[in-house]
Write a structure and sequence with these properties.
Layout lengths: L1 E4 L1 H6 E11 L3 H8 L3 E2 L4 E5 L2 E5 L2 E2 L17 E4 L2 H14 L2 E10 L2 E11 L2 H25 L1
Antiparallel strand pairs: 1-8, 2-7, 2-9, 3-6, 4-5, 5-7, 8-9
Length: 149
């Protein structure tokens, strides 16, 4: 069950591989995500000290958040992956010119998971050709709909 999707990632990058990762969250963050107060459009994934971290995910705290907690809406959150997965991703990002982008925030068996993609950036002409292809598919659908009538 999807919570939020980063459509901008598909527009700006070719997604080669998708990996599901857990998130280290605080209690108020889980409540805010369940209320739908999350945005991953401007976020990105970095590798620091052998750990994979999510930067820029914006979580708006609920007004009923605890009084003793000072919520930071864009704090750095650690992604939870196996060591072998982390090592593989580090190798691919450093050698091959790939980057890691957050794609989808969703629930898996009651837990909040983030799907990250191993991606390569698109050039301007790639974006234009994708846009033309999308327009053509929409036009085809409309023509088929008219033909069936």
């Amino acid at each position: 069950m999807s919570i939020t999707v980063n459509k901008k990632a598909f527009h700006d990058y070719f997604i080669e591989e998708k990996i599901e990762a857990g998130l280290a969250l605080q209690g108020w963050e889980v409540k805010a995500i369940r209320a739908g107060r999350v945005n991953i459009k401007e976020s990105y994934v970095v590798i620091k000290k052998g750990e994979i971290q999510l930067l820029g995910m914006h979580l708006t705290a609920l007004p009923t958040a605890s009084t003793h907690v000072t919520p930071d809406p864009t704090r750095t959150r650690k992604l939870l992956l196996h060591r072998a997965q982390i090592d593989k991703l580090i190798g691919q990002v450093e050698r091959s010119g790939y980057t890691l982008v957050p794609i989808d925030l969703h629930y898996t068996r009651g837990r909040i998971k983030l799907e990250i993609g191993l991606a390569k950036g698109k050039k301007l002409h790639d974006k234009r050709s994708d846009e033309k292809e999308k327009d053509w598919k929409r036009e085809q659908g409309q023509l088929m709909k008219e033909r069936q009538r």
